[in-house]
Specification:
It is a single chain. This protein has 157 residues and is an alpha/beta fold. It folds into 2 domains: 47 residues, no CATH class; 99 residues, TIM Barrel. It is built from 6 helices and 5 strands, in the order ααβαβαβαβαβ. The relative contact order is 0.09.
């Protein structure tokens, strides 16, 4: 995939910056480029469920765009849950995961309607006490799919 902006996108961003003059530093994202790149990624992985990491850019426009495109939201904090719910993004589209998850955060996410959680190890899931969760287990493997040790994560047999 192309990594540099197209001349049209660059000109559009330049016009925006000249007209609005936002205080620096400022991140400017052309949502047309986001839509194009998302479509290209989805074309490469047509059977995949794509998740957008909300902490990468929690701007309302970005979140609404990804929601309209069909992406699910990967959340790592209670604030991100509140942000997405406040934008009327349904909790059924959320995955909650963080390398340091408090039981209270898991419980709050579950009460908010989140039922998909990413865990780094089996013991985290067992400690959650919620057997009805949909679970994503993060795997730490080398290029031959051999399990690797992850810092702070006990080895599972």
């Amino acid at each position: 995939m192309e990594q540099t902006p197209t001349p049209d996108a660059t000109e559009k961003i330049d016009r925006f910056l000249a007209a609005d003059r936002p205080d620096p530093p400022r991140l400017v994202v052309d949502l047309n480029v986001v839509r194009t790149k998302y479509a290209a990624l989805l074309a490469l992985f047509p059977d995949a469920t794509l998740y957008y990491a909300v902490n990468a850019n929690p701007a309302a426009g970005a979140l609404a765009t990804f929601d309209l495109l069909g992406a699910k939201s990967d959340l790592a904090s209670e604030g991100e849950i509140d942000r997405c719910l406040g934008l009327d993004i349904g909790a059924e589209r959320f995955s909650f995961g963080n390398t340091i998850k408090r039981e209270s955060e898991i419980a709050r996410a579950y009460r908010s309607g989140v039922d998909c959680f990413a865990f780094d190890a089996r013991y985290e899931f067992v400690e959650s006490g919620e057997p009805s969760l949909n679970v994503i287990i993060d795997a730490f493997v080398d290029d031959k799919m051999k399990p690797l040790e992850a810092p702070g994560v006990p080895q599972q047999n």
